[in-house]
Amino acid sequence: MNKDPILKSPNLNLSADSNKTINYKRDANNYITQVFEEQLPAIKTGFFNVHMNKGFIVQPHWHTNVNELVFVISGEVVTSVFDPFTQKLKSYRIKPGQVSMLPLGWFHWIVAMKDDTHFLTIFDEATPDIVYGSDFLRFTPKEIMSLAYCVDEEKYAAAVAPIQESIILGPPLGCKKRSGSTATDPSSETPAPSPSHPSHPSHPYSHPQSGIPSPQGYSSDGYGWNQAHPFNYYYPQENYRPYKTY
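and the corresponding structure tokens:
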């Protein structure tokens, strides 16, 4: 029998509105709401409810205490995660009803590939700890970066100077192209052709030409391999059944 005192409360509540509590809002189309322990004390998990347009990103970050599951409701995303054991970057393009796993402590990010993308990031603890890449970059002294990686101190300082706060959904408001043009919305931009990945005007995300290897050298791991600017990613196959289903 469950001995959780919360469940024995005479004021027990087992429902919450995931649209009510705003975690982060960049603008009207790119924002995050949430349900965690603070919103629903009886919950033993928790999730972010994420809305994004094409070309926007949940910035690079990692979690110190939780595993994360990305579940797409509408639109498409590419999740990218760095595998510290193989030293490889794994990227997956997932559509509605598909999921991607982001293990505890692994560096990762999520990019929306279509407008009006909606997805959940579900955690196995009621409150996740998050280390943001923007904070790592802005709080690491330029002298340390130079000592560690032999980068030019002043160039590094200039590069990270625009990062003045924790950035969760990027790019930040007011972001300008390197050419110095006025601020632009990523959802209205057309990706520039990559020298190694030819442009295909009919569809910007094309299947690879023959002879292009998969990212970790796999040839028959149950996932189709696709190359597209600026991502290299896997996408789930419907006929992949490595384990029994229930």
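(Above: one complete record from the training split.) The chain is about 10% helix and 35% strand.
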